[in-house]
Amino acid sequence: METIRVKDLTVAYRGKIALKKVNVTLSPGKLTGIVGPNGAGKSTLMKGILELVPTQSGTILYGADKLKKQRKKIAYVEQRQDIDLSFPIDVFGVVLFGTYPHLKLFQRPGKKEKAFASDCLAKVGLSEFAERQISELSGGQLQRVFIARALAQQAEWILLDEPFAGIDATSEKIIIELLKELRDEGKSIVIVHHDLHKVTDYFDEVILLNKGLIASGPVNQTYTTKNMEKTYGSEITQMLQLGGVERAS
Asked: Is 210 helix (H, G, I), strand (E, B) or coil?
């Protein structure tokens, strides 16, 4: 499995810099969190990696190749607010859609693809919801369906933009356990995340952003009070201590 390397990524919206000269490496086989205050460029970094937003500068490498050449090896789960839930498609149809990158032009999914999509839906524990319209699902169920679609895509990397936003604690626990299981099976997973108290429990590595890279690396080395003060400002100290983050020496 290959590393994703971000080199000198700069993104601007309407002339304002959203992300400036970010250089960071995403390690394969890890659960990585992207953390920072509102407006720090967390979602922008993810979209910049995937070339979903125009960039002023930057190169994204997947191993030795430009990421664009290896794009189908990466699945993206957007924020729920960006998904059109009125679109008339059932759960199985969403998951089956994940098989399309591996089909020839104008080819339709056959028995093999449908069986694989069923297996992916079973993997996330939602087989009984196959015929439900996506508009009928809870937020947590919807996230699991899109993870199943990523599995059907046979993606090596799964990038999720705030998957826990607006869902209940039980659903969040189910999803993070599922993602940890997928990591243990060899998937690489990157999550835009906002709950600071869960970082040490959820992630192997963390990227700290505030319109630029503050720090990145293993959680036990990177997620320190010193780095978090650089990311959020000194007022964050008390919150971090309550959340069990050790003060950096």
From this structure: coil
> 80: how many CB neighbours lie within 10 A of its CB?
17
Give me the tens of pLDDT residue by residue for the chain, a chain 249 residues long. Answer: 799 999 999 998 888 889 999 999 999 999 999 999 988 999 999 999 998 998 999 999 999 999 888 888 999 998 877 777 778 899 999 999 898 877 777 777 778 889 999 999 999 999 999 999 998 999 999 999 999 999 999 999 999 999 998 899 999 999 999 999 999 999 999 999 988 889 999 999 999 999 999 999 999 999 998 999 999 887 676 555 555 555 443
Domain that holds residue 198: 4-242
Q: Is 178 within 8 Å of 124 (Cβ atoms)?
A: yes
Residue 100 sits in a domain of what CATH number?
3.40.50.300
Total domains present in the chain: 1
In a domain, 248, yes or no: no
Is this structure's pTM higher than 0.70?
yes
